[in-house]
Amino acid sequence: MPTAPKLRALLTLFLLNVNKPLSIGAMVKELWGVRPPVSAVNTLQTYVFQLRRWMAEVAGVEQGLIAKKILITDGEGYLFRLGQEMLDLQRFEDRARAGARELGLGNNAEAAALLRAALDLWRGSIALEFQPGQGIQARIVQLEENRLYVLEQRIDADLRLGRHRELVGELASLIVEHSLHESLHSKLMIAFHRCGRTADALNVFRDFRERIIQELGIEPSPEFQSLHQAVLSRSRLLDAPI
């Protein structure tokens, strides 16, 4: 892996935009912001040369092959070309789509397995050892949000399968990390309710309501308040499927 921060940033930019052409202007803006140095374009070309050399060394091939087949000059920019099967991100998206489709069809076991397989491709939160530009920051936020949405879908599938006891610990941890995420709190309330822990379910609502009133000055959504009432009344609608 390149050690220079700008080289790492450029490699990250290419990895987040595989098989998509990147203009020189977009890359310069990402690396240097709105006030790049006069030498920015020449320096960028040097960075591309250095990345090609590094890739050639890692792959054990000639640098010219990298320039011709992988990190390609494309008009007024560059294109980082890789087969879709080589990308964890592509496999994640494919499995997530398949899992969401099975969930929509009510095939909960298949959905849970596919969504879990998608999430298994993640190796933790994306941590960068350089200061990213706006483009990289925006893409990382998008990826993290996508991962969280897939995680919610997997939890929904597991709840439908009656795995509420196994989910309590995971959800309790998640609401610490996502303290204003109403949907995760809802799922924890349901899991607690199905475990016969009504008091814990009600405490989740109370703590969340106090937090968003204090931090945001708003009340929970009508759906969340309806869930609270359902727990209070011990509604059979919240029971685990048989």
UniProtKB/TrEMBL annotation:
<keyword id="KW-0804">Transcription</keyword>
<keyword id="KW-0238">DNA-binding</keyword>
<dbReference type="GO" id="GO:0003677">
    <property type="term" value="F:DNA binding"/>
</dbReference>
<dbReference type="InterPro" id="IPR051677">
    <property type="entry name" value="AfsR-DnrI-RedD_regulator"/>
</dbReference>
<dbReference type="Pfam" id="PF00486">
    <property type="entry name" value="Trans_reg_C"/>
</dbReference>
<feature type="DNA-binding region" description="OmpR/PhoB-type">
    <location>
        <begin position="1"/>
        <end position="82"/>
    </location>
</feature>
<dbReference type="InterPro" id="IPR011990">
    <property type="entry name" value="TPR-like_helical_dom_sf"/>
</dbReference>
<dbReference type="InterPro" id="IPR016032">
    <property type="entry name" value="Sig_transdc_resp-reg_C-effctor"/>
</dbReference>
<dbReference type="Pfam" id="PF03704">
    <property type="entry name" value="BTAD"/>
</dbReference>
<dbReference type="InterPro" id="IPR001867">
    <property type="entry name" value="OmpR/PhoB-type_DNA-bd"/>
</dbReference>
<dbReference type="InterPro" id="IPR005158">
    <property type="entry name" value="BTAD"/>
</dbReference>
<dbReference type="InterPro" id="IPR036388">
    <property type="entry name" value="WH-like_DNA-bd_sf"/>
</dbReference>
<dbReference type="GO" id="GO:0006355">
    <property type="term" value="P:regulation of DNA-templated transcription"/>
</dbReference>
<dbReference type="GO" id="GO:0000160">
    <property type="term" value="P:phosphorelay signal transduction system"/>
</dbReference>
<comment type="similarity">
    <text>Belongs to the AfsR/DnrI/RedD regulatory family.</text>
</comment>
<keyword id="KW-0805">Transcription regulation</keyword>
<feature type="domain" description="OmpR/PhoB-type">
    <location>
        <begin position="1"/>
        <end position="82"/>
    </location>
</feature>
<protein>
    <submittedName>
        <fullName>SARP family pathway specific regulatory protein</fullName>
    </submittedName>
</protein>
